[in-house]
Amino acid sequence: MKSLLILATALLTSSAAFCGDTLSSKINKATVFLSGAQVFRQTSSIPIKKGVNEVVIKDVSPYVTQQQLQATAVGNFLILDVQMQTEYVPPKNFERVIVPVKTQKEITRLEDSVLFLTFELERINEKLNNLASEKSMIKQSQLIKSGGLSDTLPEFKEIVKFYRAQLDDINELIVSWKKKQHKTSLRDKKHKSRLQELKTYAQNTQQPNEPAKTRYHVVVTTYSEYATSGKIKVNYFITNAGWIPAYDLRANSTSEPINITYKAHVYQNSGEDWDNVQLVLSTYDRTYSATKPTAGVWRLDYTVNKPVAISNRGSSNELYYSQNMASPVQAQSEMRKMKESGKYKDVNMTYVPGSSLSTISQNFSNVEFEVKLPYSIKADGSQKLMVVMNEKVEANFFHYMLPRMNKYGFLQAKIGDWENLSLLPGKANIYFQQTIVGSTMINPAVMSDTMELTLGRDQGIVSKRKKISEEERKVGLSKRILKEYTFEIEVRNNTRSSVDLTLEDLIPITANEDIKIKMVEGNGAYLNDTNGMLTWKLKLKPNGKQIIRFTYSIEHEKNKPVS
Predict the structure, then answer these.
(1) Separation CA 285–CA 296 (nearest Å)
(2) Residue range 239-249: average pLDDT?
(3) DSSP character string of 269-332
């Protein structure tokens, strides 16, 4: 009895919550962020009664929370409150429905037929097995195997005639029974299919047509001093939506700008389909905190890296120098200079292990892209591809070549002022002359002022690298030797246009002071002492070639090979 009273009370409460006018609304706009979306709904023009009233906007997303819900009045009335409400919808046709008598009789008849056909198929299979055994016995007969060696020719002919007649009869019977087996199998399959249909129908008839579900509504409380009309706009934020940026970079020739196509993969799984919705894509990240930041206090002090054993009579300045100088001699020298300048003071140091002196972060500016055409996106999480914008940017084209690794040149493009494009991290497909040549990742957070792209291999720019000479000689009267290596690079431009070529090669470097590496002849190359990279800037004429030679030397102990 107590349970029934609780259930009745809950049902009355649910009914009371939806005593206002029930309205339908349409999603007309959605602002999609990188993570999440702001959904905008609007009702048609509705009558607004005088005084305080409630209207119910039915069937919104089940993922809306009270804190993410807002409502706006369009007309001469006020909105006093807006609340999320849920409604339990019980299953329909829950009571048992009796299967019609005619259907039940047909089910019984089909069950009998299927049983009979099962026995019939079993009988046919036994017949076929017996005929197969009889045929095998005749073939294995000793009269046939003996070949008629002990019989006269007339007797042998009679034996052959007998066996031929018997085998012909058996084969005819096998074919006849296989025909019966095929027809019976078809009937059995047809009856079983019809029986399954009727049983499914009977089972569904006894179950609810629609299962129980929960509906989600927005209840808006309005107030007006007189009867009027107007519209109600509702917007809410959902987390299970977003968009992923992607790009197409297209170049048709080295004399034209590069076309950048800004694309977006939009998805949503909000529980409600978006039908012909106007979309706005925003680069704003709602995961960032909206709380006003504070700078705090920046405390600067000596850094203590690693404690060392010192005399207790030493000051904190002595502690600092003993820990941070390369040697005790250097530490004493630095302290003496401090004393002479009058800057030597005993300072009590404060150090908090693991503390950070500052935090530097960089956020992208908030940019919104209004998609011109409305889109329909199903609430199934699948991605909808759309083009956001197309931009043409100027680029400087050049060729790059590293002959020690690859004999062909690679077409490169440098794009400046890319910051004005409002790019986000994402994958970019690269096309040259309508052919995809590769892909890259665009990440503005780690890119320099110039974006450099590889547009693929150019087989019209080829090179040949070979070693010209290797000489070895003794250095004076010492036990050291000097080796000189000379390499030649031949570069050819087999195209009909001039090209700017960046040519690179490599010489070894070492951290061992006993090994001396020297650039003897670089032929105008720039040498990077840090990594040993040689760089030439060349201008190749159409169908032209250029030869580059460079020489370097390595000096080391003769009995100590280097590698």
Answers:
(1) 24
(2) 91
(3) -SSS-EEEEEEEEE---TTS--SPP------------S-----TTS-HHHHHHHHHSSSHHHHH
CB atoms near residue 50 (< 10 Å): 12
Distances (CA, A) of 276 to 17, 27, 230: 32, 9, 23
Rounded Cα distance, 450 and 392, in Å: 16
pLDDT tens digits for range 445-492? 766 777 888 888 888 999 999 999 999 888 887 888 999 999 999 999
Orientation of helix 316-324 relative to helix 328-341, angle to 10°: 140
Report the C-alpha gap between 59 and 273 in whole angstroms.
11
Q: Above 50 in pLDDT, residue 383?
A: yes
Helix ranges (DSSP H) in 52-100: none
Q: Which long-range contacts (CB under 8 A, 24 or more apart) does 288-292 make?
A: 288/363
| Type of residue at 196 | Q
Helix, strand, coil shares, percent, the chain, to 5: 25, 40, 35
Sheet holding 450-474, edge to edge: 516-521, 545-557, 480-493, 450-474, 408-416, 395-401, 499-506, 533-540, 526-528
Instruction: Please say whether the beta carbons of 357 and 300 come within 8 A.
Output: yes
pLDDT in tens, 270-297: 999 999 999 999 888 766 555 666 766 7
| Domains of the chain, residue spans | 101-205, 304-349, 455-557
Residue type, 194: R
Rounded CA-CA distance 492/160 in Å is: 88
The pLDDT of residue 363: 37
Fold of 455-557: Immunoglobulin-like (2.60.40)
Return the pLDDT at 301: 63
Q: At a CB cut-off of 8 Å and minimum separation 6, what does 534 contact?
A: 504, 505, 506, 507, 522, 525, 526, 527, 528, 550
Question: How far from chain centre, in Å, is Cα 199?
Answer: 45
pLDDT for position 275: 92
Please state the φ and ψ torsions of residue 109, each to the nearest 5 degrees.
-65, -40
Element (H, E) at 160: helix 153-205
Which amino acid would we find at residue 526? Y
Share of the chain above pLDDT 70, in %: 77
In the block, residue with structure tokens 């370097």: 552
Asked whether 257 and 392 are in contact (CB, 8 A), the reply is yes
Residue 357 tokens read as 């002196």
pLDDT higher at 333 or 244: 244
Q: Torsion over CA of 304, 310, 315 and 318, rounded to 10 degrees?
A: -60
Task: Answer yes or no: are the C-beta atoms of 462 and 440 closer than 8 Å.
Answer: no
The answer to whether the beta carbons of residues 236 and 68 sit under 8 Å apart is: yes
How confident is the model over 66-112, as pLDDT tens digits? 888 999 999 999 999 999 988 888 877 655 667 788 888 888 888 88
In whole angstroms, what is the distance from residue 38 CA to residue 41 CA? Answer: 10
Do 288 and 386 meet the contact criterion of CB atoms below 8 Å apart? no
Closest CA to 456 of 501, 409, 497, 498: 409
